[in-house]
Amino acid sequence: MMQPQIRNLIDISDTPAALKGKADMVLERARWAAQVFQRYDRDATMAIVDAVAQAAHEHAGRYAEWAVEETGFGVVAHKKLKNELTAHPLVEHYRDQDFVNVCVDEARKIVRIPRPAGVILALTPSTNPIATINYKILIALMTRNAMVISPHPAARACSVDAVQTLADAALAAGAPDGVIQVIADPSIALVEELMASPKTAVILATGGTAMVRSAYSSSTPAIGVGPGNAPVFVDATADIDKAAKRIVESKSFDNSALCTNESVLITLTEVDARLRNSFKQAGAYLCNDDDASRLRRYLFHDRGFNIESIGRDATWIAQECGIRVPTSTRILLAPITHIGVEEPLSREKLCPVLAYYVAKNRAQAISQARAVLRLAGAGHSAAIHALDERVAMAFAAAVEAYRVVVNVPCTQGAAGFATALAPTFTVGTGFFGRSSVGENIGPGHLIHWTQMAYNNDVAETFGNYHGLTQDFGGPLPQAPSDGVPGSNGYRGATAEQHAGSLPGVTRDELRRMIAEELRAVLRK
Length: 524
Fold this sequence. Notes:
The protein is of the alpha/beta class. The protein has helices at 16-37, 42-58, 60-71, 76-85, 88-93, 129-142, 156-172, 188-196, 209-216, 240-252, 269-282, 289-299, 314-321, 362-375, 389-398, 410-414, 495-498, 507-512, 516-519, and strands at residues 9-10, 103-105, 110-116, 119-123, 146-150, 180-183, 202-206, 222-225, 230-234, 262-268, 284-286, 300-301, 304-305, 331-335, 353-359, 379-385, 401-406, 447-453. The longest helix is centred in the first third of the chain and has 22 residues, at 16-37.
C-alpha cells in the first residue's frame, strides 16, 4: 500500500485537555489564515484556485488507485474520472461568478459586499474521499475561506496525503500558510471539539445520517446531506433502449458508491418485457425470485445494510450470494412486488443492485416513487425516462426530491456532471430531508453578502460606487513566530506514527468502519 509523506499533519493526543488545546491551535491557525486570505483580490484568489485544481487533476489517477486499495471498493477508472471532474471542470463552472468584488446594483440602489464564512470544518466520506476533498477545498478557496478537513478513518491515508498535496499547491501559489489543514487521526472527541468551537464558522458534512445530525446538533451552522434512495421511473413514452443503457451506466459507475445512484426502478406493465430485454442487452442480469431472496438475505441483516457489499462489483456480490452470472454482468436487477419497510430491497443500496418494480399505471408508479423516498432519501434525488414532458412534470411535481433528472444517468446527472446542475459532492436535501439547503452545495453557500441599501425614494441620489473596492492593498501580515498560526514553529507527527492503516486495525476491521457512513460518526 502507498504511504503518505508527512508534511502538514496535526498530531492529536487522547487527553481531553490536549484535544481541546490542539483543536484550538488548529482552528486558530485556520482563523488567522482566513483573515489574511480575505485581503486577497480576485486575480490572486483565482491563481491559487487554478493551481490547486491543476494539482488535483495531475494526481487524480494516483489517488483513485490509492482510495480503491485502501477502502477495498470502487472502480479505479471511475474514481479517477470523479477526481478529474472535481478539478478543472468544477472551477470552470464557477469561473464567471465573482465571490470577491463588491457588486453594485444601480437599479435597486443596493451595494453587496462579500463576507466569507471564515473557518470551514469539512467532514469527508470513505465512499468518495478524494473527489469530495477536491470539491470542498476548491469551493472554499474560491470564496477565500480556510478549510480544515477531517477524513473518514477508512480512507484516512489517501485522504491525508491528498489534502497535503493540495495544501502544498495552494501555498506555492501564494495562499496563506494554514489555509488548508487536515486532521491526521480523527476521533469522536476531536470532531466534537472542532464542531462546537466558536472559531468554526460552518460545518460542511458529507456522510451518513448520524454524521450529518451530529453536525446540525453541534450549535455551529452546518450544511449537510442525508442518505439517498433515488427512484427512477421508466415511462411508456421513454426510449426504452436508451433508458436501460443509461441506468446501467449510472448504476455500475464506481459500483454505485455515489448516493445519487438509482435505487429502485419503477416501470409499467406495457413496457416491462421490452425493458427487461433492453437491460439484458445493456449488461444487466435479471434475477429470478430465488436470486432476489439470496440478495435480500445477503444485503440486509438485523444490524442493517451489509457494508461488505458497498462499492463491490456485481459479479462479486453474485458470487457471495451463490448466484451464477456472466462475467460481463454490470448490475443485478432484482424484481420486487411491493415497496415499503417490509421489503429491504426497496431501501438504499450503495452497490450495483437495482430493485425492479412493475406498476399497473402511471398514477401507481408515481405513488410508489413517493413511497421509495419516504423510506429514505427524502429531498435527495429522483430520475425519470420519458419523452412526454407532461409525464415528466407530473412526476417531478409529485416526488419529494429537489433534483429530478430527465433522460440521463442519475448518478452523474443529479451530481451535476451530466446536466447543468451545479457540480457537487454534497447534495442538499432541503425541507423534505430536514436540511437547511435544498440545492447542490457550491461556493455560494460558503459566503454571505452585506447589503448596503439606499432609500428607494427616487429623489434620494444613489452613490457612485463604481471603481470602489474593498482594501486589498498593503503588505500582508506575517505568521506569528509562536507556532500557533504558522507552520514554522509547529510540527506534525512523524511518518512512522502515521504511515499505513490505523494501528492495530486489520483490513477487515477497516472495511467495517465504513458502517460509520450509515450509522455513526467517526467511530474509532
